[in-house]
Amino acid sequence: MVEVSLRATINLLNASTVVAISGGLRLYVAFLLAGKNMDIPIPLVMTLIVYSTYTLDRTVNCTEDEINRTEESNANKVFAYILVCICLISAVLILIQNRIFPLIPFFPVIIGFMYTKGFNIGDYSIKLKQGMGVKNFFVAFTWALTIVFLVYPAESLSLFLIFILFFIKSFINTVIFDFKDVIGDSQAGLKTMPVYFGESKAKLLLQLIQSSFHICLIVLAIFNLIKFEMFVLLYSWICGIIYISLYANSKKTIFRSIVVHGEWAHMLIFRRLAIQLSWNVFHSI
């Protein structure tokens, strides 16, 4: 039993690591799009915030989580709560040091708790996980707004488009991960998009959403109406097409999280290689 508990605890503490790192890299890309210089500690803040929010979400049990995440059922939650507190305090201290509003980390954490446990208004109980697309909307809205908070100040149109871009990317990512939890969500009575529409129609809807917005951004960039990097826009669009096609399904695969959440990592790697290649070609002429 001790061995099972230790393994479950490690699974719980490590489960949000990839998505947390992805959150930090996502903020880095947002700074690139905004044309702003970025201090290294700010993406670290985003990483700590994302880790805290998702680890807290996994620590607070829900019916569908007990079905979908049996490997974490015997975890020692005290360690998780302590680690969440350490991450939040660290994020607040970094923001204070950089003269940024220090309460930003608590916005996604509070929304995340409400998302998981819900809240009561009089005799009515409201849970953000219920309702088709509701949880995806709130998750996407929360992370897009948090990114805007951390990127601010910047040009108004850029901030608005950055918000929409990361809202759409986050929305799509949450729906993709709903595909693998169709059984647990169905048994818990949650009408997620894959449950409601089915795999094929939900996948087509995601492709339409992400392609239409990326095409609009690319057209705006071509006519120099926005200063977004064309490489970032094209890579985001093509990568989205690929991982929606491959991973918007209920099949179990270890690559889903790596490819979907790892988008920002390999985007930045290829961007760096492209810059270096352009530099070498320019100086060889």
Structural features, described:
Strand 1 (119-121) and strand 2 form a beta hairpin. The protein is mainly α and 285 residues long. The mean pLDDT is 85. The protein has 14 helices and two strands, in the order ααααααββαααααααα. Helix 8 (156-179) runs antiparallel to helix 11 (199-222) and helix 11 (199-222) runs antiparallel to helix 12 (230-247). It has a two-stranded antiparallel ribbon with strand order 1-2. It has helices at residues 2-14, 17-34, 41-59, 63-68, 77-97, 106-117, 134-151, 156-179, 182-187, 193-197, 199-222, 230-247, 255-261, 263-284, and strands at residues 119-121, 124-126. The chain has a single domain (2-284), classed as Farnesyl Diphosphate Synthase (Orthogonal Bundle), CATH 1.10.600. 75% of the residues lie in helices and 2% in strands.
